[in-house]
Automatic annotation (TrEMBL):
Identification of the protein by name: MarR family transcriptional regulator
Residue ranges of every copy of the HTH marR-type domain listed in the record: 8-141
Cell cycle recorded as keyword: no
Keyword terms, alphabetized: DNA-binding, Transcription, Transcription regulation
InterPro entries registered for this protein in UniProt: HTH_MarR-typ, Metal_resp_HTH_trans_reg, Tscrpt_reg_MarR-type_CS, WH-like_DNA-bd_sf, WH_DNA-bd_sf
Stored Pfam families: MarR_2
Membrane-spanning ranges: none
Tree of life domain: Bacteria
Species per Swiss-Prot/TrEMBL record: Sphingomonas abietis
Length: 156
């Protein structure tokens, strides 16, 4: 074999390791400060951006599976952070909106999220970050163009 696989240089592996490190740091902070899991925070943020969004839309935007979205929505509704409203366009689904408590929580979490982002990425220039985000979007597109998405099991 002329080009052996060296796992630490295998880009899918490196991307997974980095993603796990960043997600772990963020998850620990959200849990400790706000009692939120990453999926719960993603739902709150997406609902704040798109008031009146369905769980299916959240799954498509976040790439989270239906079960993860459903569990997070149930947990947030049980805590009084989101409200479910009838969806006039589709009687089988509901529109999710932040409750007043959910809006207050979002307002509290957002500055901390931005602070964590700056702590992690503040050592990079704006140009580097723009290039990095563009590359991530190109990777997303390449994966989506390559065929049906996997279950996200993370085996690399």
């Amino acid at each position: 074999m002329s080009h052996p696989l060296i796992l630490d240089h295998f880009l899918p592996y490196r991307l997974s390791i980095t993603s796990n490190l960043v997600s772990g740091a963020v998850a620990d902070t959200y849990k400790a400060l706000f009692g939120l899991t990453i999926p719960e925070w993603r739902l709150i943020a997406l609902i704040a951006e798109r008031e009146g969004i369905t769980q299916q839309e959240i799954g498509a935007l976040s790439r989270m599976d239906k079960v993860t979205v459903s569990r997070a929505a149930i947990a947030l509704a049980d805590r009084g952070l989101i409200e479910r409203r009838p969806n006039p366009a589709d009687k089988r689904s509901q529109l999710l909106a932040l409750s007043e408590a959910g809006r207050h929580l979002y307002a509290a979490v957002t500055p901390k999220a931005l602070e964590m982002e700056h702590a992690l990425f503040g050592r990079f220039s704006d140009a580097e970050l723009e290039t990095f985000i563009a590359m991530l979007r190109r990777i997303d597109a390449a994966v989506l163009d390559s065929g049906p998405p996997s279950d996200g099991g993370g085996a690399i």
